[in-house]
Amino acid sequence: MTVTARRLRAHGLSVAVPPGWHARIDRRVEASVVAPGTTVPISGTVHPVLHLSTVPLPARRGDYGSGVVDIMGRNDIFVCLAEFDAEAGATDLFANGELPLVRAVDFSPTAQQRVIPGMCGTQRFVNVGGRAFCLYVVLGSWRGRAGLVPLANRAITAIDLD
Amino acid sequence: MELVVGLLALVSAVLAVMVVGLLRSHAVILRALHDAGITLDDGAGRSASGARGEPTSRPDPEQRRDPVPSARHGRIGAVDLMGVTPEGDAIAVAIVGGGRRTLLAFLSSGCLTCRDFWDAFADPSHRSVAGPDTQLVVVTRGADAESASTVAQLADPDLVVVMSSEGFEDYGVPVAPYFLVVDGTEDRVVAEGATSSFDQLASLLKKATADARPIARTRRELLGRPLLGGSSSDRAARERGE
């Protein structure tokens, strides 16, 4: 294992972790109890979530970065790739294609799950080969987003679907 | 004839004195090099204590006897960690290049001494034992050598745990529990050692921070007898019997 070529792999996702970045690929425990009259777990089907961040990722954190974005500084970045039910990928919300790169114009301070002053976020939905994903990116600085976007894209391009 | 014998004896005596003098001179030079942190047996004249290979002006005498583990012999004194969590998820923790200070706690689920640390780190206030802005990462060996379910039971849910046998090897960890403090701004190990209780760890970290010196060095210390307290110079003095 080397610092420059560290690849994290789990649950059908992998990422070549960029130096200085923290990464997790988690899949929450699925409920063993099913919804009445169905075979669906009562808390829904569980899918993997990949997190990449320039700040340490707390053991307990939200899928969309609760607990992480709170400790980000102006030069920090949080990237989340959350998988959805494959059927969701067939809806209009999900565009067919590859994992998208982000642009500075995509970001907005109001596009954060919970608005933190000075920061900004963007959310994209994509269907990649029949798998549905939400890509959510938070930048530590709205004003400095032009400088942070290339770094975010470098992290996004390090992600692969296995 | 007696004159010749006398002369030969005199010449022999002079030569013997010269040889002794040369040997003493050689010993003085070797000692001076050693004191400067330069060892000759690795062929590189590398520092015995400099994390990046720079000689230090006054190396820890205990470190001279027993070089630091292999991870600190490279150009970079620390490496990033990658492994799995006790829940079976994948995790990568940036140790170098992040500009942060990290306390790496190498623990085991099986050792009784480690229990004190598992319990202590369940208390959030104890996780900043190495400083308020220090990230605490607990490292156990991988699933090949540890029971993930036992580790999951011991670890507080808020504790960042990396199961990675490679992590033990990368940092040359000789025994668990073992602790390293990595300065992410300089990418080097600034303190390391083994302790038998959380209170002792807190005390040694406090002292190490104050002295800006390693908290412990030798494997003989780690494996053969309890750690000595005090600064490196204190320990050196005790070693000399002063």
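qc> Residues 105 and 146 of chain A are 9 Å apart (CA to CA).
qc> done
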